[in-house]
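Much of what follows relies on a compact textual record of a protein's fold. Each token is a code from a learned vocabulary of local backbone shapes. The record below shows the convention in full.
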Amino acid sequence: MRRSRVRLAAVTAVLAAGAAGCASPEFTYVRNDDGNTYFKVPAAWHQVDQKALDQAMSAGDPESATARLRRRLVWAVAYDAHARPAARHLYGLGTTDEPFLFARVVTLLPSERDALSLNGMRDAILPVSEGLRARVAQLPGYPLTGFELLADEVLHPGDGVRGVHVRFNYAVKGAGVQTFDLTSYLSEDARRLSTILVRRSAACYRERAAELDGVTRSFTVRKAFG
């Protein structure tokens, strides 16, 4: 009888291990083109259509030679927990409080490398520094108001990489108060600026804070070789 129980336990363990091996993955792992910047997102989140994202990023840009060069030097991707992913959900527009992630790696032009500061990293996607916020506040109809800084730290993860992490609130016209969590890293050779931005409504951010913090902490920039 004892041997039968042992066999049954062993078979059960094997079946359980097989079932676990066939289970859906918990995360989607994302890397940029050269593989030096990467992060993970919950597998249930949906990638935003790349063409729609590219169009949203280039909206309003003049068709100058610099603008065309800039687009060739940018890698970007977005993931949306909403059932119908859309680029405009970056600001919380038209959502039901579902999280949104935007990541971008920019190959900097020589003039940009010389001018980039910690504030430049903070302002990589949305205005965070006092100076930039003051300037954009003068724009007619600017949709972001009521800035509130929640966290701000300088990062030194190693291998010569440096960066910043900021978390802040904005009242978004048409979407209420939203919490944005941004991390920007400058590569050791100062040639690439890698940024990840995670958004969710301020009212619901704490409900999934552990999940969202896990996504942010997974954002990694490796030293480039060769």
Notes: DSSP finds seven helices and ten strands in the chain. Helices lie at 2-22, 50-58, 65-72, 110-115, 118-122, 130-136, 209-217. The first strand starts at residue 27 and ends at 31.
